[in-house]
Amino acid sequence: MYTGDTKTIVANLIEILGAAAVAALGGVDRASIVASWAHGQEIPGADAESRLRLAYAAAEILRERLPDNVVRNWFFGANHLLHDEMPLAEIAGGRPAEIEDAVLGAAQAMISH
Questions:
Q1: What is the average pLDDT score of the chain?
Q2: Annotated domain spans of the chain
Q3: CB 6 within 8 A of CB 46
Q4: 43-81 residues labelled b (16+ CB within 10 A) or e (exposed)
Q5: For the whole model, what pTM was predicted?
Q6: Helix (H, G, I), strand (E, B), or coil: what is residue 112?
């Protein structure tokens, strides 16, 4: 997964997915918390950070060949490789270590077509 700083990850995810979706990924209920992560004023907990890093890794795979609006749609659409769940929901509700291969495989499959 991406090993860069958390601020950059959060800021890029906000740009691609919007603050509300990033809040869901981070397990928080307010976009203001996400903004504080993006500005380095606060840091997410370890589990939240792992989910954010996984989401960012998937987004970066997709962004190699797809525009941001398609990347955003991928996160919000049902995915047959993820048991017809939205990638966003799978990441937000899962343990990154357990779902990482499935999520990144689904992203890779998307750009392979």
A1: 94
A2: 6-112
A3: no
A4: ebeeebbbbbbbbbbbbbbbbeebeeeebbebbeeebeb
A5: 0.94
A6: helix
- Reduced 3-state DSSP string for 48-98: HHHHHHHHHHHHHHHHCCCCHHHHHHHHHCCEHHHCCECHHHHHHHCCHHH
Model confidence pLDDT, tens digit, residues 60-107: 999 999 999 999 999 999 999 999 999 999 999 988 889 999 999 999
User: At 18, which helix (H) or strand (E)?
Assistant: none
Q: Residue length, the chain?
A: 113
Q: Would you give the DSSP letter of residue 27?
A: T
CA 48 – CA 24 distance, rounded (Å): 9
